[in-house]
Fold this protein.
Amino acid sequence: MRHINVMLGVVLLVMGAQAQAERVHGPQVRPAVLPRISAPVALLPRTQVTAGPAREMPPRRGTPAVVVERSMQPVPRSRAAADAVRGVPGPLQSFEGLSYDRAVPPDTIGDVGPNHYVQMVNSRSNGANFAVYNKSGVKLAGPTALGQLWLSAGVTNAAAQYGYGDPVVVYDQLAQRWLLAQFAFETSASPPWYIAIAVSASSDPLGAYYVYCFEETDYFPDYPKFGVWPDGYYMTSNDGDNLVGAWAFERAKMLLGQPARVLKFEVDGNFLLPADCDGSTAPPANAPNYLYTMMDDTYWPSQGFPGPDRYEIWAYQVDWVTTNNSSVTMVAALPCAPFNYTVNGYFNWNAIPQKDTTMKVDAVSEWPMWRAQYRNFGGYQTLVGNFTVDADGADHAGIRWFELRRTLTNNWTIYQENTFVPDANHRWMGSLAMNGYGEMALGYSVSGSNLFPGIRYTGRVAADALGTLATEMNIWNGFASQTNSARWGDYSAMSVDPVDDATFWYTQEYIGSNGTWRTRIATLAVVPEPQWSMLALVLAPLVRRRTAL
C-alpha cells in the first residue's frame, strides 16, 4: 500500500506541475528593515490588568461552508485505553502560566531553552503578554506587553503603541537565541500592518532584543507561524481567500542586529506551516525549508484543488544573493489514510461540546496545528505534525498525527500515521513533537458533554508498533466551560528541552473556576524515569538511543 501511495503521489505531482506553478506568485523582495535595540526585559514594566470589556482577537478569516463528510467512515484509530499495553507517566512538573487579561482567545504558546521557559498569550494592551520562567516554574519576569520591547527602543508605530497578537515564541537552538513575534496594526481594516519580530541579542531571554517592524500593505498577515532554518526565519500567514503568505526573513542579519530583508511568495491552497528545526544537527547543506499542509477530497476540489486526501510538502528555496532565483515548489503530494475534513463544517465555530452548557467552541479543524517539527537524524530526516479531524463522520473531534521521513536519496514518504480518538470525548488543538530518541509527545485539549475542557497528553517510544500511541495521561482538569466566546485558542505548543533532548515541555489553556481562561505549563516524559540503580541511570539513555534509530 505504501508503494502504491508513493506512485500515486508521483502521478499527482507530474499531472499537476503546471497547476502547482500557477498556485505560486512571487517573489517580492522588500527593502532591508533597520532594527533598534530594546532595554533588557528584566527592566521592562509589568502589565497592569485594568477593568473593562474583553477584546476579541481578529476573527479567523474564511468563508463558512458545509463539508460533505463520509457518514461513519472507518478511519485508522489509535489503541483504545482498554487495549493499550502501556500508558505515559504523569507530568514531571506542572505549574501555572499566564492568565486572562481581557483578550479572547489566549493563543497559548511557549518554548524552552537551556535555562528558561518563555510563554506568551494574547492580552488587551500593547499586544501579547510574555513571561520568563526558570525551569522550576519560578517567574523571573512578566507579564510584560510585547510592545514594551519596541517602546523601550524608541519605536512609536503601531507595533509599540497598539500591538495586537497571535503571538509566537521560538527558541533558535542552532544560534541559541530567542524569537518573539506578533502581528501589529492600528486598525485591521486598512494598511499598514506589521510583522513585529524581536530577536534576543544574547542567549538570555531576560536581556535586550533587536526589534524589527516589517511592513505589509497588500494583505493583512493573519495567523503568523514561524520556523527556524539555517538560511532564514520562515513564516506563513493567512492572507485570506485561500491565499497563504510564505515569508523568509534574513536570519543571519537579524542575529547580528543588522538591517534585514524579507522575501515573500503567495501560495494558493490550504494554510501552510513552515518546518521548525529541532535538535543540534542542522539540516543538510543548502536544504530548502519545507512547508506542509493537508488537503481533503471533499472541500478542496470545490475550491479548484482536486485530488485525494493527502499531505502536501512544498520546498522553499531562498537565494539571498540573487533573490529572483528563490522558489516555492511542491515536492510531494502524499496520499494518506482517509480523513473527514473539519468538525461541523468549514469555519463553523460551533464544534466542541462542553459540560453544563449548550455553547460549543471552535475546533480550528480547517488548518494544520502548530507545529511542523523537523529533525535531522543523519541517515534520515523527519517531519511530524497533527491536525483535528471529524473522527467518525458525526462531528466527533479527534487528532490525526503523522511522521514523514526523507533519506538523502529519496523524497518524503509517510512513515506512520493514525487518528487518536480513544473514547467519546473530543480532542483537538494538538501539538506534536519528537525528541532526540525518536520518542513523540502529543498534547491537546479535551472536552465533552460531561467534561469541562482540560489538558491531556499521550505519546510513544520509537520501539512501539507504528501508528500507535499509549493511553493518555491527564495534565490538568478544567473547572468550568467557556461561555463568553466560541473562540478557543488557535494553537498550543509542545517543545523539547535542548539540554537533554528528551524532556517535553507543553503549554495549553483551560477554564478557571471564574469562567475565564488560564494556562498551564508542564514538563512531560513518555517513558517512566528509571528508579532502580546508578547503573540503570547510566545505561537508560544508551538503550533509548538504540531503539530510536
User: Anything to note?
Assistant: Residues 2-548 form one domain. The longest strand covers residues 380-390. The CA atoms of residues 9 and 333 lie 5 Å apart. Confidence is low (pLDDT under 50) at residues 71-85, 531-537, 545-549.
